[in-house]
Amino acid sequence: MTDHFVTVEAPAKVNLTLLVTGKRPDGYHLLDSLVAFAGIGDTVTARPADSLTLHVDGPTAASLPEGENIVVKAARLLAEAAGVPLAADIRLTKRLPVAAGIGGGSADAAATLIALSRLWQIDLPPERMRTLALSIGADVPVCLAGRPTRMEGVGEVLTPAPALPPAWLVLVNPLVPLSTPSVFKARTADFSTPDPLTHAPADAHALAQALAARRNDLTAPAIALLPLVGEMLAAITAQPACLLARMSGSGATCFGLFADEAAARVAAQGLSAHQPGWWVAPAPLLG
Ligand code: C5P
């Protein structure tokens, strides 16, 4: 067997805005979200093998839940869809906190679909890949897109977003998982009207202004379930040169937006000093 391997990065997904615009009869919520990616994430490496094996390492590997890993689910569904044997040796290096609102599992699943498509030399039509991704999780299609995207429906309606300017993020997570279904259930406010970003912001300040005019509608229910989210937002806002502080997805990860790397690194140090138990990660916003 040849010793080639395929490595695909699984960057953190960040909901820069998240409006809940309605609810489907099956209970899933309709969203209008500006999704972008950060230059930090997990890594998926796939090598040829006779059967499917998964090895997980990395700083957050120990917090993965029991049961079938989403990477294995993605591999199984892709092999079934393509009619190829389910055979690969996969290494998942986990750096992102689990159940954190930054799509760790969804990013891993999308990276697995990409890595195994290359390893197995299969080329499913993009529409088929998106359907497969959606069957794994609502955020997997946008992670497959991997670039700034307007996400609507429950995650299946994707439109390229205007280009984002150079900017840095500081991601902050209390290392307490927050369950996505419980946050959606705790949401009681009226539905929002869709409000997409229509122009490319000229710089990080203009981006912050555009984002400030929109919201993450899941913030209040997340704070009601986990008051630490409110504390993190206050601590991020208090950092010098912070342009905007917001929660991503259904939480608990929050992020600060900064104009440049130096400002982000100073804020990250300040946040780590404020609360040494928090996971704090400065990373560029991928435009
Ligand atoms: O598909 P995913 O596993 O990411 O979603 C987890 C849960 O979050 C769903 O079972 C549902 O309760 C809730 N959810 C929702 N509306 C969405 C996405 C997720 O209600 N658009």
TrEMBL record:
<protein>
    <recommendedName>
        <fullName>4-diphosphocytidyl-2-C-methyl-D-erythritol kinase</fullName>
        <ecNumber>2.7.1.148</ecNumber>
    </recommendedName>
</protein>
<dbReference type="InterPro" id="IPR013750">
    <property type="entry name" value="GHMP_kinase_C_dom"/>
</dbReference>
<dbReference type="InterPro" id="IPR020568">
    <property type="entry name" value="Ribosomal_Su5_D2-typ_SF"/>
</dbReference>
<dbReference type="GO" id="GO:0005524">
    <property type="term" value="F:ATP binding"/>
</dbReference>
<keyword id="KW-0418">Kinase</keyword>
<dbReference type="Pfam" id="PF00288">
    <property type="entry name" value="GHMP_kinases_N"/>
</dbReference>
<dbReference type="InterPro" id="IPR014721">
    <property type="entry name" value="Ribsml_uS5_D2-typ_fold_subgr"/>
</dbReference>
<comment type="similarity">
    <text>Belongs to the GHMP kinase family. IspE subfamily.</text>
</comment>
<keyword id="KW-0808">Transferase</keyword>
<comment type="function">
    <text>Catalyzes the phosphorylation of the position 2 hydroxy group of 4-diphosphocytidyl-2C-methyl-D-erythritol.</text>
</comment>
<dbReference type="InterPro" id="IPR004424">
    <property type="entry name" value="IspE"/>
</dbReference>
<dbReference type="GO" id="GO:0019288">
    <property type="term" value="P:isopentenyl diphosphate biosynthetic process, methylerythritol 4-phosphate pathway"/>
</dbReference>
<feature type="domain" description="GHMP kinase N-terminal">
    <location>
        <begin position="69"/>
        <end position="146"/>
    </location>
</feature>
<feature type="binding site">
    <location>
        <begin position="97"/>
        <end position="107"/>
    </location>
    <ligand>
        <name>ATP</name>
    </ligand>
</feature>
<keyword id="KW-0414">Isoprene biosynthesis</keyword>
<feature type="active site">
    <location>
        <position position="13"/>
    </location>
</feature>
<keyword id="KW-0067">ATP-binding</keyword>
<feature type="domain" description="GHMP kinase C-terminal">
    <location>
        <begin position="208"/>
        <end position="274"/>
    </location>
</feature>
<comment type="pathway">
    <text>Isoprenoid biosynthesis; isopentenyl diphosphate biosynthesis via DXP pathway; isopentenyl diphosphate from 1-deoxy-D-xylulose 5-phosphate: step 3/6.</text>
</comment>
<dbReference type="GO" id="GO:0050515">
    <property type="term" value="F:4-(cytidine 5'-diphospho)-2-C-methyl-D-erythritol kinase activity"/>
</dbReference>
<keyword id="KW-0547">Nucleotide-binding</keyword>
<feature type="active site">
    <location>
        <position position="139"/>
    </location>
</feature>
<dbReference type="InterPro" id="IPR036554">
    <property type="entry name" value="GHMP_kinase_C_sf"/>
</dbReference>
<dbReference type="InterPro" id="IPR006204">
    <property type="entry name" value="GHMP_kinase_N_dom"/>
</dbReference>
<dbReference type="GO" id="GO:0016114">
    <property type="term" value="P:terpenoid biosynthetic process"/>
</dbReference>
<dbReference type="Pfam" id="PF08544">
    <property type="entry name" value="GHMP_kinases_C"/>
</dbReference>
